[in-house]
Amino acid sequence: MKAHYGYKDGSGDWFIIIDTDKCVECDDRGCVPACPWDVLEIILDDYDDEVCAVVEDQRKKIKYSCAPCKPDRDRPPLPCVAACPYDALEHSW
Amino acid sequence: MVEYWRWKEYRWHDESKDWRKGEFITAGVDVGSVSSQALVVVDGELYSFSNMRTGSDSPESARKAMAWALEGTGMTLDDIGFVVGTGYGRVNVPFSNKAITEIACHARGANYMYGSSVRTVLDMGGQDCKVIRCDEKGKVTAFAMNDKCAAGTGRGMEVFADLLAIPIEEVGELSLQVDEEPEPVSSTCVVFAKSEATGLLREGWPKSKVLAAYCSAMAHRIVTLLEQVGIEKEFAITGGIGKNIGVVKRLEDEIGIKALPPTYDTQIAGALGAALFAQNLLKKKLAEASKT
After folding, report:
1. B271 band by pLDDT with thresholds 50, 70 and 90
2. Are B140 and A46 inside 8 Å of each other by CB?
3. SS3 letters for A59-90?
4. Are A2 and B104 an interchain contact pair (Cβ–Cβ within 8 Å)?
5. CB A4 to CB B145 under 8 A?
6. Confidence (pLDDT) at B126
7. Which of B133, B139, B221 is facing A47, going by the closest CB pair?
8. pLDDT tens across B17-34, in order?
């Protein structure tokens, strides 16, 4: 399942997309501690798979929560994306 | 004072069916931000449902919806083997055995309502909009949800019905009574859209044209969300806005795909999916109990 967590508003599209079919294969779950802003968590989804998801309280503000990891210039790799060995995680912006 | 936004609450049960002959009786309760539905399924077939407004107290809304769905059937809560709660208030259904997200429940419900060929479900709810892709079994393969703003939702439409003093059920039809399609109003904020509409009325626009501008804005906003996930045929619409022909028609025109015609009330999809999940969970529970 491709889970799009986030929102659209007048300023653009702000989604973190998690491919749970890939995510469920991972034993490491390094993405959660890699995020310095506690945006991610591991949940048991509706089909009883343990997968990564965006924390409920963060879903309407990820544009701002993720902003410190996205400087205008010399942007380093996103820590959450870099920590995912299955390429299961991407940002829409 | 007439409340034009206030849609009619209703209930239904299949009087031709004797639920006492059923083996698996399960229920789904969808406590949404605007409306609540309780629905009973007997051996995989729809038996009864109620649809009412959600009050300020979610557990009470769930109780009332369930009591109304059971009214006149002779069935009590004790006769129901498993209850699944869904919707915004899913964790506030006091008598539920499990909570499942409305995303999974709408996909499952749409699969039942429209058939296994459905691949894209658009749920236009009271205070959010969801695009769900699913497989032939109704299992979610992708989803996106937008609940950041009331524009593009049922609540936004209620605001417009009240502003223009048009009963909410007539908004869609009236919006189609225009000679040519006007430019859409603001689609990112219902407050801005409302103030824009007030200005248009002052300029002398007829109500039908203002409604056309809002329905068009709403359709356009939903299309951008559909594009986020991608649209695959067959395409079905659930939720209250699915009854608004003015939005549905404009949406179909913009994406170039016709939505499957509804065979059930589009508002019950979430509760129906929840009741079907409940049936599987009841069977699993009984199978496990028989082993011990």
Report:
1. very high
2. yes
3. CCCHHHHCHHHCCCCCCCCCHHHHCCCCCCEE
4. no
5. yes
6. 86
7. B139
8. 999 999 999 999 999 988
List the single best residue of B103, B148, B186 to mutate versus A (max A Cβ within 10 A): B148
Q: Min CA distance, B40 vs chain A (Å)?
A: 21
Work out the average pLDDT over A35-49. 96
Candidate from B101, B143, B146 with C-beta closest to A8: B146
Indicate which CATH number applies to the domain containing A68.
3.30.70
The token duo for A72 is: 């205008």
Nearest CA in chain A to B188: A10
Which residues from chain A sit within 8 angstroms of residue B147, using beta carbons?
7, 60
Average pLDDT over residues B85-109: 96
The one-letter amino acid at B20: R
Nearest-by-Cβ selection for B148 from A3, A4, A7: A7
DSSP 8-state symbol, B70: H
Q: Does domain B10-108+268-291 have CATH number 3.30.420.40?
A: yes
The domain locations on chain B are: 10-108+268-291, 119-259
Question: pLDDT by residue (tens digit) across A43-71?
Answer: 999 999 999 999 999 999 999 999 999 99
CATH topology of domain B119-259: Nucleotidyltransferase; domain 5 (3.30.420)
Q: Tell me what the mean pLDDT of segment B227-240 comes to.
A: 94
| pLDDT classification of B127: cutoffs 50, 70, 90 | confident
Residue A9 has pLDDT above 90, yes or no: no
Which structural domain range is residue A23 located in? 2-91
DSSP per-residue letters across B11-47: EEE-TT--GGG-S-EEEEEEE-SSEEEEEEEETTEEE
Nearest 5 degrees, angle CA B132-CA B68-CA B91?
45
